[in-house]
Amino acid sequence: MTLLRVENLSREFGGIHAVENLNFAINPGTIHSIIGPNGAGNTTLFNLITGVYTPSTGQIYFNDQEITGVPTYRLARHGISRTFQNLQIFFNMSAVENVMVGNHLHTDSRFLPALFGYLSIKQGERECRQRAEQIMCDVGLEQYIGSDADSMPYGALKWLEVARALASEPRMLLLDEPAAGLNPAETREIDDLIKRIADKGITVVLVEHDMKLVMGVSDHILVLDSGRKLAEGTADEIRQNPDVLEAYLGHGRKEH
Q: The pTM is what?
């Protein structure tokens, strides 16, 4: 059974096809990367999957339920969570409070409990905080449990976004260029974190330009070029694909 299925997906902007007639599927428990040269359409595809854009044509299915055009904030209820290329952090909150925000789907905030069950709500808040702290430890942020978000370095903030996304207990986690702006040591750490997330049974979908990272973590890779599928396969298959080499490196081009 596939977890995510995309059928005949297209998106036009002013008559220009940013994504054109794409078909692919993602199996549960895998690490699936979407890559392509600049302007290939991988960011547009990612935004279509995550509800930022609505397709011009085509359908998107998650766990055999159509989610085409479902906005990002509602996808969490389907078991989908994401991070952003440009950090979306609440800098007026503590690090733990940022992670707690991701747990809102699992917090009892109904009116009657709020009216008659004050003590149970306080207990629920304590449990939510404890869980957020545990997630921070799981992703390697234990030293920042008592920190304010605005005092954390950039690399740690990238991890904090991942922690917040994990707090919603997703079945599929979409990471938008998680290695962007990281130094080599931090990139190796994010490589390890992605693998550990997948080992817990969470499907990871990655849009990333760091090819060393992509080739090292991916079970399956989708390559786009000018909005169309150029190639699809394992890291070894993509690494040896002449069309991919041509698109990325210009291999095979004749000298003029």
A: 0.88
